[in-house]
Design a protein that fits this description.
Low-confidence stretches: 271-277
Shape: globular
Radius of gyration: 18 Å
Order of helices and strands: HHHHHHHHHHHHH
Length: 277
C-alpha cells in the first residue's frame, strides 16, 4: 500500500523545480521572459510538463527508500532503475531536468528514509546512498563522464558523493538574503548565483570549456560582491551577466538543478534553516 507521505515528498520536489523555473532573470536559463515568443513559449511549457512528469518516478523513489529503510546497495540500484524509467518519461514529456532528477531523486529518497531528518541530515544520507555503486547501470558515455575524464569535473555524481555541498551553500544564501530583507525571488536568485559562482557544471564545461566556466563563476561572484540582486549595483551586474550568457548561448543548467534541490529541502517542515558549506 502506498504511503501518502511519498507522494507529498514528490509533489514538494516538483513544486521546487517549477518554482525555480519562474525566477526572472535567470542568467542563461529559461525564465518567464521566454513567454513572449511563440517558440520559447512552447519550450517553457515543455519544461513545466517535464517537471510534472517527474512526480510518479519521485514517488516511487520515496516508496523504495521507505520500504528498504537503510541506504544500502540494493536501494542504490533500485533508485537507479527508477531514475532511468523517469528519464524515459522526461523524454516523452519534452525533455529537460535530467540533472534535477538525479538531485531531487536522491534527496527525496533520503528524506523518506528518515522523516524527522533535517536538511543537513538528508544530504548526508544521500552521500551514504551514492557511496554504493549501481552495478545495474548501463555502461555508456555521457557528457558528464566525458567532462570528468577531460577536465576532472566531478559533475552531478561528484556533488552527491560529497553530500551536496552546493545545495547546502544555496540554503545558507537563502537564509542570509531573507535575513537581510530581500524579497523571496531575490533570495532565490542570490542562492542560484551562489551555486553558479563555484559549481563545476559539466554541461557548461561541455559547451563553454574551462575558460567559459571561469567567466560564469566570475560573473556570478560579481553580482554577489555588488550586494546581491536586491542591491541596485547587484541588479545591474545580474543584467550584464544575463545578457552575456544568453548572447553566448551558455546555460548553467546544473546550477538550476542544485537550486531546485535546495528549494525542496527549504520547503520541508523539518528544515534546519542554515547549513555549513
Amino acid at each position: 500500500m502506498t504511503d501518502p507521505r511519498d507522494a507529498v515528498l514528490a509533489d514538494t520536489a516538483v513544486s521546487a523545480l517549477t518554482a525555480q523555473l519562474v525566477l526572472t532573470p535567470k542568467p542563461g536559463l529559461p525564465d518567464l521572459r521566454d513567454l513572449t515568443a511563440r517558440t520559447t513559449r512552447a519550450d517553457h511549457r515543455a519544461l513545466r510538463w517535464s517537471a510534472k512528469a517527474l512526480a510518479p518516478g519521485l514517488t516511487a523513489m520515496a516508496a523504495a527508500a521507505r520500504r528498504t529503510g537503510r541506504p544500502t546497495a540494493p536501494l542504490r540500484a533500485e533508485l537507479g532503475s527508477i531514475g532511468r524509467c523517469a528519464e524515459h518519461s522526461l523524454r516523452l514529456a519534452g525533455g529537460g531536468h535530467r540533472g534535477a532528477l538525479w538531485t531531487l531523486g536522491l534527496l527525496v529518497a533520503s528524506a523518506a528514509l528518515d522523516p524527522s531528518a533535517t536538511g543537513e541530515g538528508i544530504t548526508e544520507t544521500a552521500k551514504r546512498i551514492v557511496a554504493h555503486t549501481d552495478r545495474t547501470a548501463p555502461l555508456r558515455a555521457t557528457r558528464g563522464s566525458a567532462m570528468a575524464v577531460k577536465y576532472g569535473a566531478a559533475g552531478a555524481r561528484g556533488e552527491a558523493r560529497a553530500g551536496f555541498p552546493h545545495v547546502r551553500r544555496a540554503l545558507t544564501a537563502l537564509a542570509a538574503a531573507r535575513a537581510a530583507g530581500a524579497t523571496e525571488a531575490q533570495a532565490r536568485l542570490d542562492a542560484l548565483l551562489t551555486v553558479m559562482s563555484s559549481l563545476r557544471d559539466s554541461e557548461l564545461l561541455y559547451v563553454a570549456g574551462p575558460l567559459g566556466l571561469r567567466q560564469v563563476h566570475a560573473g556570478a561572484r560579481a553580482v554577489l560582491e555588488a550586494g546581491g540582486t536586491a542591491a541596485p549595483a547587484g541588479a545591474e551586474a545580474l543584467t550584464a551577466l544575463d545578457t552575456d550568457l544568453h548572447r553566448r548561448g551558455w546555460s548553467p543548467r546544473g546550477s538550476a538543478g542544485i537550486l531546485a534541490g535546495a528549494l525542496f529541502l527549504d520547503a520541508l517542515p523539518t528544515r534546519a534553516g542554515t547549513y555549513g558549506s
